[in-house]
Amino acid sequence: MSSRTTGYRRTRWAAFASLGACAVTFLATAAGEDASAQAKVKPGRGLAIAETEKIDPRAGSLSLGITTGRSIAGHQNTVAQASSQAYDYGVIGSTAATKACDGGDPTLPDDSQPHAIQVDSRQANSTQDADEDKVPVPAHKHASANPTPFGESETTTAPQTIGPLEIGGGVAKAHSGLLDDGTTREASAVVDISGISIPLAGISMSSLHWDATWRSTDPENGVIGVFSIGSASIAGSPIPTTDPTQVLLQMNGALAPIGLAMTPPQAHKNGDVIFVDPMGISVFPSTQRDALVGGVLGGAQPVRQDVFAALLEQDCSNATPITIFDIIVGSMTGAGSFSVVLGGVQASSGDAFGNSFCLGCGGTPTLGVNTPSLPSNVSNAVSAPTAGGTVLKTNTTPGPASTTAAAAPAAAKKVGGKRGGALAGVGLAGLGMIAAMAEGDRRKMRRAQREIPQFEE
């Protein structure tokens, strides 16, 4: 009888030891996962867009804008994407790519126009470089994406002259994803233009810089928006560039006689997006300029009609370039508006939105590259600087959303929690009950054995 008691005692201690081992293993695993969660963050989502410049003649609500140097990078969950486009001809490109009025070949076929390179981390060729050969000036495009996830894009364009405006070379960069071994989640867009000058007004600026960064793993100081000017001069005299807004307002005095005005960029949050607006150079009514241009065009009007009528009679497809010419000339003489938009960046990063379609499980690229998303602050009047100026550094709390934005669908309520706590207590209590039941069964079996009659020979 004593040997049986000793055996049950060993069983009891073995049961207690197993229970203790389970508890220690569970808590150690939970602690290790909590430490890992602190070291690394979930991929979440991000989007960054940068544009070097845009020529934007308008007639009414019709824009014939041509964008130069666009870089886009984005990620969500395990998928990263990026695109780089040297030129986007917009409406002009779409119109020129259609068949001629007589059914002949298009004025500028689609395959002769510049297009974006776009990469996806799910593709085999997730890194691409290309020198653009279908644009007026040299350009280089680069885009890459990997499953970290991390996507980046860089678009480089050469200097060019637009009317009285001389624009230096530009670089538009964008990246989005995880950095620093997965401990930092960030989206950032940067534009650098080497300089601009308008000799007619005697003004010049160098090293124009736009930067929008949203680092969602830094709640206190993760949002940064900057616009800066390296140097500036009017009629050869340098002026301080500490406050870029004041620099542009001073230059507007020199630009007024030729009917041009610059709109100072502003850095601001709109919802969970940081914007640094582009710098607009717009044409406004000028008595001196309009009198000169009006006299030239007025004298040329009879000749213009005869020339254009002959061109249309020769080939009806000449209607497209004639229309474009009329809109551009009209936009500069009061019949519409004309502006050059320089720079402009935006960035957003954070937790991934609810997604029932399993983004990252396969499929085709979803990053849009043909629809510009940057806002334009260009107008025919120079706006006064707003609060915050051109440098913004703040936390990741979403800012006031635009009143014109569509209402976003209500997000599902997120229930916070962590491993351990009450759930661990429930699990341990369950293990304890199992152990208690095993002990009860052992006692029943022992009692039943004592009640069995013992027969002696």
Task: Describe the structure concisely.
The chain is of the alpha+beta class and 457 residues long.
Kindly state the number of beta strands. Answer: 22
State the secondary-structure class: alpha+beta
Question: What do the pLDDT scores average to?
Answer: 77
**Cα separation of the termini:** 18 Å
What is the element string, with H for helices and E for strands?
A: HEEEEHEEEEEEEEEEEHEEEEHHEEEH
Rounded Rg:
34 Å
In percent terms, what proportion of residues is strand? 25-35%
How many helical stretches? 6
Helix content: 25-40%
List the topology elements:
Blueprint (H helix, E strand, L loop, with lengths): L1 H38 L5 E15 L2 E2 L2 E11 L2 E10 L1 H7 L20 E4 L6 E6 L6 E8 L3 E8 L2 E3 L2 E3 L2 E10 L4 E15 L4 E13 L7 E12 L2 E3 L4 H12 L4 E4 L3 E4 L2 E4 L2 E5 L3 H28 L4 H14 L4 E6 L2 E6 L40 E4 L26 H31 L6
Antiparallel strand pairs: 1-2, 1-3, 1-20, 1-21, 3-4, 4-5, 6-7, 7-8, 8-11, 9-10, 10-12, 11-12, 12-13, 13-14, 14-15, 14-22, 16-19, 17-18, 18-21, 19-20
